[in-house]
Amino acid sequence: MKVRRPKLTFLDRLYLPQILAGMWLTLKHIPRKKFTRQYPEEKFKLLGKYRGAPVLVRNQDGQVKCVSCQLCEFVCPPKAIRLFPGKRDPHAPAEAKIEKEPEDFVIDMTRCIYCGQCEEVCPEQAIFLKKTFAITGYKRAELQFHKDRLLELGGVHEDPICKWKKK
Amino acid sequence: MSVENVKLLMDGREVLAAPGTNLIEAARLAGVEIPHFCYHPRLPIAGNCRMCLVEVGLPQLGPDRKPVLDADGRPRVNFGPKLTIACNTPVSEGMAVLTRTPRVIKARRGVMEFLLINHPLDCPICDQAGECRLQELAVDYGQGCSRFVEEKEHKPKHVALNAKLMLDDERCILCSRCIRFMRDVAGQDCLGFVARGSRSTLTCYPGQEPATNYDLNIVDLCPVGALTSTDFRFRQRVWFLKETPSLCPHCATGCNTLIGSREDVVYRQTPRDNPAVNQCWMCDQGRLNYKFINDPARLATPLVDGAPAEWPVAIAHVAQRLAAIRAAGGQVAGIGSARATTEELFLFAKLFQVLTTSPQIDADAESETRPTETAASLDAVCRPGLRPGANAGLLDSVPRSGAADKFLLDADRNPNMRGAQLAGVAAHPPGSRLAELAAGIARGEIKALLVLGEDVTAAGIGAELLAKLELLVVLDTLPGATTAAAHVVLPGASFAEKGGTFVNAKGRMQQLSPAVAAPGAARPEWQSLSELLAAVSSRALRDGQPKAANAWNVTTPVFPSLGKVFAAMAAESPALKGWTLDGLGSQGRDV
Ligand code: SF4
Ligand code: SF4
Ligand code: SF4
Ligand code: SF4
Ligand code: FES
């Protein structure tokens, strides 16, 4: 197939009108309000339902809420979660009935797609997608968030029910 | 008396069942599932959970004891006013059973609601979740929310019944399966219910904790998470486990098992149904004997004189040194473990046929084919007069025994002694040639020893004898005194990492299947033996003149697959005539 070159008029071939039109557009924007953001110095304002990185929380008593049921590990579509279940002392009064707590809980932030399935499935309300985003690191290993890091990011989540206390 | 099958209608479908069959089993024949908790096909019937209620109707009989027919010419069926438990109702001629009517569904919902009244519903921390009958049936017959507003009954939780069992009484649904198992199968009547009504609690008689070798079966039996295994508890969720049909390698009974593994880690073994061997039970010793599979000390690289080597190099090295020893007139002996598979033992025996026969055998076979290439040509090389067992004096296996019990556990703790005898590796009685073998080493006649999966220092061939050998080759999975003394160590695979067959004490041949991968470069022994066989039977070696290493076809195994090994074995053994590996199926065959 032959592609025909468009026939250019004299004005077209001058290029000047186009250049001027372009410059005009640029000049028009100079006095207007800027919407370029100086990221990362200037952070985004996140909306209410924003889902960032999944993190673990403690309840008001400082108790790790996760009981290592491994449902989030099962449901996570990209298999970002890896859990190592551990035992709790069943005779310690505070956690009398819980018996289980993760020994380690690893979320591979290079894999997580922030889908929120883990938060959805968790029977203990122990994992939440908080507003943490832009997770960076120099090594892959730095992006494997372990239990301590996740709990630190998650902080405290008021639990109005405290179901285990009533068991 | 002739035993005629009884014809009945199950949800309108005709089923033929043997007389005496209960309705749950009859329904199974018709492809209908009747939900149940307390019924178990291998336990006496208790009929206490009431989950299996169904509508049962009997044909109306006229004065002549003949069924009364309705207008369409079909027998008229009278349904009782109440529902009947299916587990304790035997089939009878002309019976009609309805399992899905609104009345039945309502009854099931009612039973379910009662069961859940005091149930803690702590599925997130319950080990049974994922294989819990209560959980499954609650999905079918449970209600979204409970009508029960009162305080739940609290009962003892995390009670260690003994070192192996944990009991959570709140989760118990009082089905009494565990009680019946301990009383009627394990033979220790130690569990029972105390208190009444909603306070009924499963407990063990004071001072009489379960102490049999079969306690852990009640963990499998318990339909809920009331009884859990201390060993498996909280280690992995069952929905992550891949279940591979296998065999227990702990004794000569050869209980059929399922290996539960995730990502190359074995987490548990559970019994698999086989009416001819273990029904659906297994002993605790066998069940808990799997830890060595994941032992971090496992041998993972071939070692030649203590240094890591590649497989072809190691195999070539062994073949070369064996050839040199034979050329110098030294004898070669072998000790094969009756824990190895029959295929491996067969190859081991074959190896000795080749090694102990002088190079002049059947020159014609050699001139026609290159003996290393196919199993068939290898057969031709080995055949004349060389039936397994013909190399007396040089091969044996190590016996291993312990106390037997009256149920499954056999005194012979080798899973495959019959297989070792079939392959001609074990003497009759096993181990009787070991002393002779030790004497041979002591006299300096036996210069090379091949050990398949045994620590021979524990079998009368001590380190000082091993030190006399010019060549000690060990195929094993774990390091020990023998591998420490070995010149060449070839890492092998444990029973959970390979296929193969075991022949149990009663002569039933059953197969293993690989559940996990062997660590590092370790691989099933049959592959190594097969390559070794190829190497030693190659032309260069049989002439007793080692040539350049590349002249040996070491990278071409004689047997490309286990099935081929089995086929070669079946071709040589009259007992296995016409058998194939696949033909063994999941339940095995009697030899
Ligand atoms: S947010 Fe989605 S992808 Fe990320 S850990 Fe949770 S389930 Fe996995
Ligand atoms: S689903 Fe919740 S409780 Fe279960 S393991 Fe995940 S975070 Fe823990
Ligand atoms: S026994 Fe079943 S229903 Fe009860 S807590 Fe355990 S898994 Fe859940
Ligand atoms: S412990 Fe389990 S098997 Fe025993 S009665 Fe309770 S629910 Fe049944
Ligand atoms: S199964 Fe029939 S009553 Fe329990």
What attributes characterize this protein structure?
heterodimer, A: alpha+beta, Alpha-Beta Plaits, three-stranded antiparallel sheet, 5 strands, 14% strand, B: 591 residues, alpha+beta, Ubiquitin-like (UB roll), six-stranded mixed sheet, 17 helices, 25% helix, binds iron/sulfur cluster, binds FE2/S2 (inorganic) cluster
Describe this structure in words.
The complex is a heterodimer of chains A (167) and B (591). Chain A is α+β, with helices and mostly antiparallel strands and 167 residues long. Chain A has a domain at 54-166: 2-Layer Sandwich (Alpha-Beta Plaits), CATH 3.30.70. Helix content of chain A is 25%, strand content 14%. Chain A is built from six helices and five strands; from the N terminus they run ααβαββαββαα. In chain A, the strands form two sheets. A three-stranded antiparallel sheet of chain A has the order 2-3-5. The longest helix of chain A has 14 residues, at 16-29. The mean pLDDT of chain A is 90. Among the domains of chain B are: 6-100, Ubiquitin-like (UB roll) (Roll), CATH 3.10.20; 303-590, Rossmann fold, CATH 3.40.50.740. In chain B, the strands form six sheets. Chain B has a seven-stranded mixed sheet with strand order 16-15-21-20-19-17-18, sandwiched between helices. In chain B, strands 1, 2, 3, 4, 5 and 6 form a six-stranded mixed sheet that branches. In chain B, strands 7-8-11 form a three-stranded antiparallel sheet. Chain B has 591 residues and is an alpha+beta fold. In chain B, a hairpin with a 2-residue loop joins strand 1 (6-10) and strand 2 (13-17). The two termini of chain B are 33 Å apart. In chain B, helix 8 (342-356) packs parallel to helix 15 (525-536). The radius of gyration of chain B is 30 Å and the shape is elongated. The longest helix of chain B has 17 residues, at 311-327. Chain B is built from 17 helices and 24 strands. The complex binds iron/sulfur cluster (4 copies) and FE2/S2 (inorganic) cluster. The site of one iron/sulfur cluster (SF4) has 13 residues of chain B, from helix 3.
